[in-house]
Design goal:
By secondary structure, the chain is mainly α. It has one domain (35-307). 76% of the residues lie in helices and 0% in strands. It has 13 helices and no strands. The chain has helices at residues 3-23, 25-33, 37-61, 73-86, 92-104, 110-138, 146-167, 169-180, 185-199, 205-232, 239-253, 264-275, 280-307. Helix 4 packs across helix 13 (280-307), helix 7 (146-167) packs across helix 11 (239-253) and helix 8 runs antiparallel to helix 9 (185-199). The longest helix has 29 residues, at 110-138. The chain is globular, with a radius of gyration of 20 Å.
Length: 318
């Protein structure tokens, strides 16, 4: 195991342990153990919907692949779900890297598979920023602080940079020039290829709009999932507050600091929901249930990973 992975696991375990200890492990356990099963089932059903939407939006993004290189539908679907399972044991970008690599094993250029995954991630972040921004606009001003506004602005700016590289000739030229300054030849070539692959999406406006709308739907469903889990453990906070706070939590969980968002998610839930008056034990219990719900959503990929083979198919749709 690589030292960097060991460090991330150590940070995840250590941070989670500290937060649990601070929140009183007994109180957290009691809040989780007394969860209402009806609300938990509702959250699990919503996970099935959001995973289906996530798979569909990535498949739609494969429109930019070189004609004739798109694998079979079953191969794409399996690649997506297995990558979500593998990503449970890796930092947030680990599952994305695995997905890009796995798709490239089916005669898809690595630069194109990486571009599809990158666009999927960018549109997902943009959707989080959009949902959060709408919640900020509709929320009372006194309930919105810099801790909420700044992450949304940063996320939107990051998406704008990528969008510039896709749709602006000048920005694309700047990206290509930056790629030529990378220290290794392989890195320079990979950077140039990825930029060129990203540029393909400038001709797929309809698909990008569809994927963005699906991404907004996914983020809204995740907010409702958290609300269901909160109701399960008797957190008396309105749904509008979840729409304000959960986008912040999701942005924190995207940071590639720990494994599967452990530690960082507990910290984010405790901080943001604490601002809404939620006691620390309940906030931490909600974070644990939210992470566990994600693991449940990744289980189909685990079954495919254990029972299936990842060999490229012999026959492909041309």
């Amino acid at each position: 195991m690589r030292p960097s992975r060991i460090l991330r696991i150590a940070v995840a375990v250590g941070l989670t342990a500290i937060i649990l200890w601070h929140a009183d492990p007994r109180a957290v356990f009691c809040a989780t153990a007394d969860a209402n099963p009806a609300w938990i089932v509702a959250a699990v059903l919503l996970v099935l919907i959001d995973r289906a939407l996530m798979a569909w939006r990535w498949m739609d993004l494969l429109c930019a692949l070189t004609p004739g290189s798109r694998p079979h539908f079953a191969t794409i679907l399996r690649t997506f779900f297995v990558s979500t399972f593998v990503g449970s044991f890796l930092p947030s970008i680990g599952g994305d890297a695995y997905r890009a690599y796995s798709l490239s094993r089916h005669d898809v250029r690595l630069s194109e598979s990486a571009a599809s995954v990158l666009m999927d991630r960018v549109l997902g972040v943009l959707a989080i920023a959009f949902v959060g921004a709408v919640a900020v606009i509709l929320s009372p001003r006194e309930g919105v602080g810099l801790a909420i506004v700044v992450p949304l602005v940063c996320a939107a700016l990051g998406c704008a940079v990528v969008a510039g590289a896709v749709f602006s000739d000048r920005a694309a030229a700047a990206a290509q020039a930056a790629a030529t300054r990378l220290p290794w030849h392989a890195a320079r070539r990979a950077g140039a290829s990825l930029t060129a692959a990203m540029r393909r999406y400038s001709h797929h406006h309809v698909e990008l709009v569809r994927v963005l709308l699906a991404s907004i739907g996914v983020q809204a469903i995740r907010v409702v999932q958290a609300y269901c889990l909160g109701r399960a453990i008797a957190i008396d906070v309105p749904l509008a507050t979840y729409f304000l706070l959960i986008p912040m939590v999701l942005l924190v969980m995207l940071l590639p600091i720990t494994v599967s968002g452990l530690g960082t998610s507990q910290l984010a839930f405790q901080y943001f929901f604490g601002q809404a008056g939620v006691p620390s034990p309940q906030a931490v219990a909600l974070s644990i249930l939210f992470v566990a719900l994600g693991v449940v959503g990744n289980l189909p990929g685990g079954i495919l990973y254990v029972t299936g083979s990842d060999r490229p198919p012999e026959n492909r749709t041309r």
